[in-house]
Amino acid sequence: xxxxxxxxxxxxxxxxxxxxxxxxxxxxxxxxxxxxxxxxxxxxxxxxxxxxxxxxxxxxxxxxxxxxxxxxxxxxxxxxxxxxxxxxxxxxxxxxxxxxxxxxxxxxxxxxxxxxxxxxxxxxxxxxxxxxxxxxxxxxxxxxxxxxxxxxxxxxxxxxxxxxxxxxxxxxxxxxxxxxxxxxxxxxxxxxxxxxxxxxxxxxxxxxxxxxxxxxxxxxxxxxxxxxxxxxxxxxxxxxxxxxxxxxxxxxxxxxxxxxxxxxxxxxxxxxxxxxxxxxxxxxxxxxxxxxxxxxxxxxxxxxxxxxxxxxxxxxxxxxxxxxxxxxxxxxxxxxxxxxxxxxxxxxxxxxxxxxxxx
Length: 359
Description:
The protein is α+β, with helices and mostly antiparallel strands. Among the domains are: 63 residues, Orthogonal Bundle (434 Repressor (Amino-terminal Domain)); 45 residues, no CATH class. The protein contains 17 helices and 4 strands. The chain has a 4-stranded mixed β-sheet. Helix 1 packs parallel to helix 4, helix 11 packs across helix 12 and helix 15 packs across helix 16. The longest helix has 24 residues. The C terminus is likely disordered.
């Protein structure tokens, strides 16, 4: 496994053979032999490989593997094949830790992802997507209010959400099925941690829309457009839009949209579109407001500070739960969280002041 892991770690770090060799003070040929299993690195070289690739040394000895099946990128053309390969290996490494954690429990602590039974078999119009979004909210017992933490919501219902440290603006997300070496499969969405929360949330809801709508759209309906409609309806359902903005309006105030963006985590442009989709404003008003929106330069950057990025919490919560139920040791918990054991001790004792000083 070490040879394969070295290759995966190098790819995830975005390093060439020459670049990694330079960091270790060996030739690129030596790195190639490590990856082919023709040469075994020493203990000191394993530590140097871990530091160079930004992983813990235990990574090279993992036996639980994950295959990303049917990976699909949402990205621009400038996101190269090498960039995609880097994200794939990073995502697989995170998914391995997720699935390793789930397998620690005698009974899985999260339900498998399920599509509600009461969805329409055929969706004839975009307006019907409102019904699908509300049906899912009802199935998940979310009500019609804002969703404070969409990552937690998706993960609780069987979707693995991974934040990737990828600052290339051409990358939006990666969707795949994470299949383990015992043939269990988990749907997975990996998004960039660099984007503000409103963009992350819309992307996650859009990909959820693909899972809900694939195979249900009547001929002539565009799936991407349909998933955008689903994302808006899931984040800001029609009853909430009407309650917030009123049944019918001649126009909207920018400050209204700014406030609602911060309440629901849906962009101002998203709220403007939802007002039109829910019949609050007319087509003429929508065109006029979007023209003003573009003129102000808000299509590129909306006013105010960006919403803080989403921070998935379920993984860490389940690590501490496993520790509390005596399913794992402290060292195993620290390894899952990817932090030194002493840092973990401080976190476990809630000694945040010392931890901050240490960092």
